[in-house]
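Internal ticket #5521
Category: modeling
Description: The requester needs a full-assembly model to guide mutagenesis choices. All entity lines are attached below as received. Residue total reported by intake: 733.
Assigned to: D.W.
Attached entities:
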Amino acid sequence: MRKASFKGGIHPHGYKELTSGKAAVPAHVPDRVYIPLSQHIGAPCSALVLAGDKVKKGQKIGEGKGFVTAPIHASVSGTVAGIELKEHPGGSFVPCVVIENDGKDEWAETVKPNKAPAGLDSQELRKIIFEAGIVGMGGATFPSHVKYSPVEGKKAEVVILNGIECEPYLTSDHRLMVEKPERIVAGLRYIMRSVCCGRGIIAVEDNKMDAVSLLEKAVAGEGGITVQVLKEKYPQGSEKQLIYACTGKQVPVGGLPLDVGVIVNNVGTAVAVAEAVEYGIPLIERYVTLSGSGISEPANYLVRIGTLFKDLIDQSGGYAGEIEKIIAGGLMMGKTVFSDEVPVVKGSSGIVIIRDEAKRKFKEVNCVRCAKCVDACPIFLEPTTLVKLAKLRAWDEAEQLNVTSCIECGSCVYGCPAHIPLVQYIRRVKQAVLAAKAKDKK
Amino acid sequence: MLAAVISLGVMGAAFGVILGIASKKFAVQIDPKVQEILSALPGANCGSCGFPGCEGFAEGVVGGETKPSACSPGGQSLYEKIAAILGTEVSDYEERKVAQRLCQGGIGQSRMLYRYEGIEDCHAAFAAFKGPKACNYGCIRLGSCVKVCPFGAIESGADGLPVVDYYKCTGCNKCVEECPQNIFRLVGITHLANVRCVNTDKGKDAKNACSVACIKCKLCEKNCPEDAVHVVPYGTGTVAVIDYEKCTNCGICATKCPTKAIDIIPPISEEVILKSEEHASAGCQRCEVCQ
């Protein structure tokens, strides 16, 4: 049978063999953790602790106002050293709660197993998920309880668990699927119950067949859940492309997956949900891949939130030669950070370190109109036209060409023979369009 | 041959009559004042008045929707002209304003956090940790203001910082709106002393990031004979700000400032100010072709 996929996209080299066979090891818990007070989309948290306070593992230390937010918990037990401004992998400076680890790893009293997780209704489940601070762990970090909340007139028919991991180098989701298939299925059950829908799909690409066989074993006997194998292609892990590949439905421009009755979640989120619902454990650790040409021993780690990149790099034997850049996230969509003193956050799926090599230095030249970017664009935009409009600062025309739909996947840049940083130009246009809209609202 | 001449001639005459009637019947009424004002305006379509182009502004003035002084590039001579066309009084004299860059952190002054590679646009660099400089408030030096200036009054200087040509600058506000760090301010052309720093961090942190930062030492405040400069709350912290109503351009603050964050620009000669006003009144757009 021909495996399903989406239209457009590219086939970058995966480099997954560096870490895909390595089991995730618990990373050394550092003496100091830096927990940013904003690790999600929505209202940032304000700290609930002061310098000198004793905190325990799993204790709530930050809380935000409003509905679209997620609380933040201590990932170690110890003493709060203060609140410091620190670099955030998202490209900004964010206040962080600094905790001196006392090494005891004592759990907070609030963390206790749930006696009857099977009897919880959807509202209770959403409350537990919110209290545990669970956000989308694929990288977008959208608060999960918001995603599961019912919207009038729209009904979720299927929950898709995203185990695609199409980014080069990253294998954290792969390892999770190999190591904890039962927890993923259990988490999916709770998510399906919290959105009141009876069908679940776990989508995996055909480069992870070992995970597929384990997941298939785990779902055997579970009604309503299937494992779907998709053809390897980038950016299949993007929500809208994944929905098309799995169901053949297209999310309308400016719409949400719920418009076509779908909810998409990362496999990591499902595991976090299962941990929270059954054992009451908030989101304080995650799988992180540390890979790339600039690291001595690429590996997968189970990392406490707030661990600095530097600590992980030291554990992997340090840098391999002169490095060019450290990318927080995947090679294609991750953001470059200028220092290794950046904490791991809820959305950090990987750290990619690239060695400094002269052959990769390119200069932008004029567009040759080959339209490779148009063929590659998975949402059927014309990146070359948008770049032209960006250079002319013609924001209105670009908006008419749906520039705000761009998912910034970088497929257009990948094949560009003129080495034009198309995504950067398009991001600039999006920024200008959104700024103009905000101004109009005022 | 003859048939062709006659038939074309008849057709021409017939169409001529139809067009003549149509032009009378469907004539669009244009206020002659709009045309007169339009020819007096600078004609750069800069949009600083808030209207889409100079024609929109001319209609707005005639319709009473806006004041002549909304056209900042025009200057006093334009307001007088418009007043003459409309037959109204000239409003109070308004000093010509020019853009002042409130940052001196050029190459060598500011500590760099990282090397930026990417498109030449300040907003793009701003998205990555507020630009490559250690100072989170200062000029990013990628020239978005240079590109946006409709009068070509801003150029990138040798130290990477944009340099404003006070002769060409019309105070249209475009650069003020464009700058992601908000380091441009419109200041009257006769005001010469400026605090060229908007870093609101504590003195030590500011100094650590940039050698010409305002360190909030308050020496300017203590030494000002006119009580015109104060370290005041600004954004998320404090910074020295000059009250232009009180400032007399004495320059004491500039000599006392230990980091030279305050500077005093050489006075722009009366001649230049007069010349620019004169040229504006002659419809000059300061393109410098004549020079």
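Resolution: model delivered.
Comment from assignee: The domain at 32-86 of chain B is CATH 1.10.15.40 (3-methyladenine DNA Glycosylase II; Chain A, domain 3).
Ticket closed.
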